Amino acid sequence: MPVPPRGPAPAPNRHRHAPAAAIGLWVLAAFLFTSQAAILKWLAPDYHVTEILFGRSLVVVAGATVLLLRGSGLGAPFRTRKFRFHALRFLCFLVALTAFIEAVRRISLADAVAVTFAAPLLMTALSVPLLGEKVGVRRWSAVGIGLMGVLVIANPSTGVFQVAALWALLSALAYALAIIVTRIATRTEETVVTVFWLNALYVVLMPVFAPFAWTAPTWGAVALMAGCGLIVLVAQLVAVEACVRAPPQVLAPFDYTALIWAALLGYAVWGDLPTRAALAGAAILIASGLYVLWRETRRARARPSGGEA
After folding, report:
1. What is the DSSP string of the chain?
2. Does the pTM of the predicted model rise above 0.90?
């Protein structure tokens, strides 16, 4: 007679291979996160980063709580067995956002976003040792070509590579690590639980800095923080769902679409016009992203017999 296994049964793996859907979700998330970045740039001169993150995350937690009440219940976040991953994800995103805000204080939104496009290359590289993912020559080539597009945009002669660019590069590294951790956590964690814990930690920990750096916000600033929270709630739900459907190296090239949104928002809000170099680099980035989409769609159709390429 077989001996029944001891302990609770392992949670089912939520991951599934749906690259086209994942990429569509990721592009939407890129637009939403770039919209958030524009709001952060607007608020950054007047309010400390911890105050902005607290106000934004308070709205996200409220929205996530409503979703939990309508779904798996308020107890779902507290039944997690992967709190260490939620805490690590929080630290990575905190570093990424803090560094990005420091960058956009000093350089334009489009320039900061362009420099952070080192993240997809870092994400692809880190997914090999940390996730055991296989990355073939063609996908490495597509990401490498995308990086060339970044170099076209962030030409050193434009003055982008100054101290502020180091903040953007730090943001890119922390962001890449955060997405890797998200991919690990979402093997078993419910999407809304992942979003809840990230923002709940912001709400709990950011007030620690209140006596040192916070400023009483105007009603306009409160409205912007609340709007930012609503945008981030949707963006995080969408991004986590994308991570469920595809590994980071598939999604990485589509971070580049944020450049388009950054250029449009930069012009609409601050009057910054994209340069010819930015347009040329964007064309290279989009081409590399479309190539990855084409490759992943082919691999999905041939998955029973296909291999990594």
Report:
1. -PPPPSSPPPPPP-----HHHHHHHHHHHHHHHHHHHHHHHHHTTTS-HHHHHHHHHHHHHHHHHHHHHHTT-TTGGGG-S-HHHHHHHHHHHHHHHHHHHHHHTTS-HHHHHHHTTHHHHHHHHHHHHHH-----HHHHHHHHHHHHHHHHHT-GGGT-SSHHHHHHHHHHHHHHHHHHHHHHHTTTS-HHHHHHHHHHHHHHHGGGGHHHH--PPPHHHHHHHHHHHHHHHHHHHHHHHHHHHS-HHHHGGGGGGHHHHHHHHHHHHH-PPPPHHHHHHHHHHHHHHHHHHHHHHHHHHTTTT----
2. no
